[in-house]
Structure formats: structure tokens, C-alpha cells
Amino acid sequence: MRASILTIGDEVVGGEIVDTNKAEIASGLRLRGVMPFEVRTILDDAGAIVAALRELSDVSELLIVTGGLGPTTDDLTAACAARFLAVPLVRDAPTVERMRARFAAIGREMPDNNLKQADLPEGATIVPNPVGTAPGFVLEARHATHTTTLFFFPGVPSELRALMDAALWPWLDARGLGPARLARLAVFGLTESETGARIERALDAVGRPPLRVQYRVAMPAIYLTLHAEHTGAASFDAALDAVAGALGSHVYAGAHRPLAEVVGELLRARGLTLAVAESCTGGLVSALLTDTPGASAFLVESAVTYANAAKTRVLGVAETTLAQHGAVSEPCAREMAEGIRARAGTDLAIAVTGIAGPDGGTPDKPVGTVWIAVASGDGTATRRLASRGDRDRIRRTAAAAALDQLRRVLCARAA
Predict the structure, then answer these.
(1) φ, ψ for residue 301 (rounded to 5)?
(2) What digits encode the pLDDT tens for the residues 258-306?
(3) CA 291 to mean position of chain CA atoms
(4) The pLDDT of residue 392
(5) What is the Cα–Cα distance from 399 to 283, expressed in whole angstroms?
(6) Averaged over 232-251, what is the pLDDT?
(7) Helix (H, G, I), strand (E, B), or coil: what is residue 177?
(8) In b/e form, how buried is each residue of 209-231, taking b as 16+ CB within 10 angstroms?
(9) What's the pLDDT tens digit per position in 150-183?
């Protein structure tokens, strides 16, 4: 089924409010096996509304429209729908009574301009609004090749939700399209292009099943969505297995979730405690971990040791290590992690030290050089990271890489 979404409102186009309606509609469509092929947002302008209804109806079997059903002069949608279908507006008496009763229930008399909300295109199927005054309505537009069903809903999110539950979702469910196949993956450690290349090879290997792969970069992670409309479970599962296999350990979650949240869950599930020592990230690793409630169950201590003297005084990093190798080195990261772990008495510890820039780089250690260490009772795992970008990007990438290194250590312990 070809479906499209039209949201209407000056305040949406002008950025005064965030249009969450189109996301909610699209998500509900996808869960029912329908991928909207176009989502459009336009001003409260009669000519633009009529043109959009005509253009989207020409290419859609289903068109969902939100906004412009209020009582004020800028609410033009019902009149434009009538103009589009060349039918008159007709005042619906039951809608007037429902509105009057709603105002009476709160001890107020209904203003006359609310009557406009009961003026609906002739032939419309009315969807009563249980949480507001403006009703929704449904129309059909007949074309030479198809018939378009148009659902018109208020733009207030709570009202939209109630009317979709009452009318749109039952209408779709009655058509027996079947559920969509949908899977989400969170990936870290690959570029978007590398991720795409691996996925393309994996899908080629399983015969190119009919599915869509969507990529969303949520720096520094990549969120993937695999979506198939009415594809057999076996075919979809084979494609998902192939994609997950091609991405390997870079997949850190089977959902769109922050890496720190996943790491925190692993620590809590295993009953393990953690300490953190940071230099270039300035406390960002700890901040990410404590963004999620429940971090007190595993995070015992954190230290930001920016100066070399602090690394020695607080973490016990040897002065000879700093003199021979420098603060940005594998030996320093190792001693930072082992030092904070011993001091805090924790099961594990993370350490991060690096050059975030824009100054401080050398030919041997350019800006973006970061060393990460994860210390545990089984030893200390280290990793060198060569990151690019500005200072903020380098620091965020380093913090995420440290969490990912911890995730890998935790997964290896459980294997």
C-alpha cells in the first residue's frame, strides 16, 4: 500500500514546535507493514493545502493529514478538503452537540467560532474526538487508477493519538496486510560507509531479500533499521543473521540504545563494580555512565587526572613512565587503570589518556591519539585510538571507545 503523510501548520514549518506527529504516524504505519513513501509539511495556506492534497492523493492509496482543524481563522484544512473534492461544507449537528456538552462539562459556554469545527466536507465519515473539540473525518478520492482514502486528524498529539487508535489503525488492520518485519541494531567502531559496504555484501550473499536498510548516525554510534513489508519470517531472519554476522562484534545492541546504557546493564547483570580514570575526556566517560539511573550499583569512583602530577599522586603512575613514554602512551594508560582499580577496590577500571587538540600533537603522537585501558582481575587490555575531528568530536569518540572496550572485556568474560 502506498501511503503518505501531510502535516500542516505555520508553527511547524517555522520551527516553533517540533513535529512529532509525523514520526508517530510513520512508526505506527511501519508496525503494520506500510512504509510511507513521502512525508510533507506545509504552511497554513489554502492554495498550498489543496495542491498538496491533490499531488499526494494522485500517488497514494492512503493519505494521513494532521493539523488545521481548529476554530481560528488560520485553520483551513476542512475547507481545503472540501475544495479539493469539489463538495460543500456541511455543519454536522451531532458534532455541535458533542462540543457544547464538552464546554458545559467544564462550566463554560462554547464560543461561536467553535462551530467552524463542525463544518465538514459533504460525504465525510466523522471520527468523534474523545479528548478535544475538533473531530476527525475520512474521505475518499477516486482516480482513474486507484482510490485514495484520506484521514484528517487534529494536530494536537494527544487528540491525534486517540483518533488514530479509533479509526486509522482498525482500518489498516482490517485490510490484513500482516505485520512488518522490523529489526534495529546499534553499531560502534565502523564508519557509515564501512557499515554500508559490509551490509551490501551480506545481503548479496543471501539473495537480496526485499527489505530496506536505513542508517542514522548518532555520533559516535550508527543506528540501523532493517524493514520489510510482508516478507516471510525465514527470509527476513536470514537477512538479519547475515547483516549481524557481517558487522560482528561492532553490533553492541539489538535496539537503538546508548552504548553507556548497554555497558551499565552488563555491569549490573554481572554484579561487577567499576572505577574510572580520565585525562583528555575530562569526566565524560563518567558522565555518560551516570546519565542512566542505577549507575550507583556499579560505579564506585571516578578521577579526572589532567596533569601529570595528578596521575602520579592520585593514580600511582610512575614518574619514570611519564618521563620515558609520556602521558599519552600505553604504559601510562595501563598504570592509570590499574592504579584507580587498586585504589577503589573495584572489579574493573577504565582509563583514558590522549591529545584532544587543537594543540599538543607531534609527528609521533598527532592530535586525536588516545590510549584506552581496561583493567580487571584477568589482566589489562589496552587499545590505541587514532581519532579525527575537532576537540569535541575527539573527546566524545574517545569516551565511547573506552566504553566499547569495556563492553568487549565484559562479553569476553561471559563467553
Answers:
(1) -155, 150
(2) 999 999 999 999 999 999 999 999 999 999 999 989 999 999 999 999 9
(3) 17
(4) 96
(5) 9
(6) 92
(7) coil
(8) bebebeeeeeebbbbbebbbbeb
(9) 999 999 999 999 999 999 999 998 987 766 688 9
3-class DSSP state of 73: coil
User: For the chain, how long is the longest CA-to-CA vector?
Assistant: 88
* Predicted local confidence at residue 268, as pLDDT: 96
37, 63 in Cβ contact below 8 A? no
Give the SS3 label for residue 341: helix
Residue 238 reports pLDDT greater than 80: yes
d(CA 322, CA 279): 14
Sorted by where each starts, the structural domains of the chain and their CATH numbers stand as: 3-173 (3.40.980.10), 181-253 (3.30.70.2860), 259-414 (3.90.950.20)
Q: 142 burial class (0-12, 13-18, 19+ CB within 10 angstroms)?
A: exposed
Name which of 373, 376, 372, 374 is nearest 347 in CA terms: 376
Residue 250: how many other CB atoms lie within 10 Å: 19
**How is residue 255 written as a grid cell?**
535496539
Residue 401: Cβ-neighbour burial (10 angstroms; 0-12, 13-18, 19+): buried
Please say if the pLDDT value at position 212 is more than 70: yes
* pLDDT tens readout for residues 90-111: 999 999 999 999 999 999 999 9
- For residues 99 and 109, give the distance between their C-alpha atoms in angstroms, rounded to a whole number: 10
Q: What is the C-alpha separation between 96 and 99, in angstroms, rounded? A: 5
Cα–Cα distance measured from residue 107 to residue 97, given in angstroms and rounded to the nearest whole number: 15
Per-residue model confidence (pLDDT) at position 178: 63
Strand pairing of 274-278 and 212-218?
unpaired
Tell me what the pLDDT averaged over the chain comes to: 94
CB of 411 closer than 8 Å to CB of 248: no
What does the CA dihedral 398, 401, 406, 411 come to, rounded to 10 degrees?
A: 180
DSSP state of 89: E
- For 184, the grid coordinates are 534495529
| Helix (H), strand (E) at residue 97 | helix 93-105
Q: What is the mean pLDDT of residues 71-86?
A: 96
Q: Do 168 and 3 contact (CB within 8 A), yes or no?
A: no
62-76, 226-240, 241-255, 272-286: least confidently modelled range: 226-240
DSSP string, 377-415: TTEEEEEEEE--SSHHHHHHHHHHHHHHHHHHHHHHHH-
pLDDT at position 22 is 95
